[in-house]
Design goal:
By secondary structure, the protein is an alpha+beta fold. It has a domain of 68 residues. The protein contains two helices and six strands, in the order H-H-E-E-E-E-E-E. The chain is flat and about 45 Å long. The chain starts with a helix and ends with a strand. The mean pLDDT is 78. It is found in: Membrane. InterPro entries: R-trans_p, ZAR1/RTP1-5-like_Znf-3CxxC. Keywords: Membrane, Metal-binding, Transmembrane, Transmembrane helix, Zinc, Zinc-finger. This is 3CxxC-type domain-containing protein.
Length: 105
């Protein structure tokens, strides 16, 4: 339940930063990384030796069109990073609303 999660840790940003450090800390030797969304069309000119990490987690979606909310165990985010340029790109994957059929993030 949500109350049980709050007992574990009431500050989700703390959990996010801890998980982020566990996943990417070994690559971040510099303190000056830039986090940027991948282009909407997916076009991004990354060097051929860029690295990728895919994370799948439970995600809450909300449809902007009909306000329907749901959670999915298959929420996905991909990170693409280049240690030379210190840029970390991310792409959030979408799902279709089962009520109205619109694409939701």
């Amino acid at each position: 339940s949500d109350d049980m999660k709050k007992e574990f840790c009431s500050d989700m940003s703390f959990i996010f930063h801890a998980e982020f450090q566990l996943t990417f800390g070994r690559y971040f030797l510099s303190d000056r990384w830039v986090l940027m969304p991948l282009g909407i069309d997916g076009v991004c000119r990354l060097p051929s030796d860029s690295l990728c990490d895919v994370e799948i987690a439970k995600v809450r979606f909300e449809c902007d069109s009909c306000s329907h909310c749901w959670t999915s165990m298959r929420g996905q985010i991909s990170f693409f990073y280049d240690c030379k340029s210190c840029i970390l790109y991310f792409k959030l994957f979408t799902q279709l609303c089962d009520r109205c059929g619109d694409t939701c993030t």
